[in-house]
């Protein structure tokens, strides 16, 4: 009897473990799908913010360039930066520019993920921070409109930042106060994006 009870308990525990694993797996899949859906919506919102009134198309060429971007950036002096996705911004049936989804691992708190829009003429149409882990009230201000609005008027193949204000907002941006590392990371991300569009895609 004692042995039968042990076997019975073991079977019950096994069944419970299998059921719990199935429930956890099902819950995880639902959560994973919802997170992926929210991430996609957030990304698309960022794309629209940096290139208004455009639809976005992937091409084999842009996908291939994005896949090799890490190595290309390192060769150009932009370490820790990668293009996660590059798409063409289509307006009136023609390619008006490009939107790059770029991750820079050199932020103060780690990865800073941005969407950057650049026209076929090399003018920036905007920058939107998709995610960051920067310090609240300091580097995290990189996602504020007061900072990102500066990039809508950039018209240069390379930019720099100015501390204390006074940037021309064509070749320069104003740094985030007390957040030099974050500002440097964002500036390098923009310069890497400009390099990608000018030198890898090959705009004139």
UniProtKB/TrEMBL annotation:
InterPro entries: FMN-bd, Ion_transpt_RnfG/RsxG
Domain FMN-binding, first and last residues per copy: 107-197
Pfam families: FMN_bind
Membrane topology, as annotated: Single-pass membrane protein
Keywords for the protein's UniProt record, in alphabetical order: Cell membrane, Electron transport, Flavoprotein, FMN, Membrane, Phosphoprotein, Translocase, Transmembrane, Transmembrane helix, Transport
Subcellular location: Cell membrane
EC number in record: 7.-.-.-
A single GO molecular function term of this UniProt record: electron transfer activity
Transmembrane segments: none
Record's protein name: Ion-translocating oxidoreductase complex subunit G
Organism: Hominifimenecus microfluidus
Gene encoding the protein: rnfG
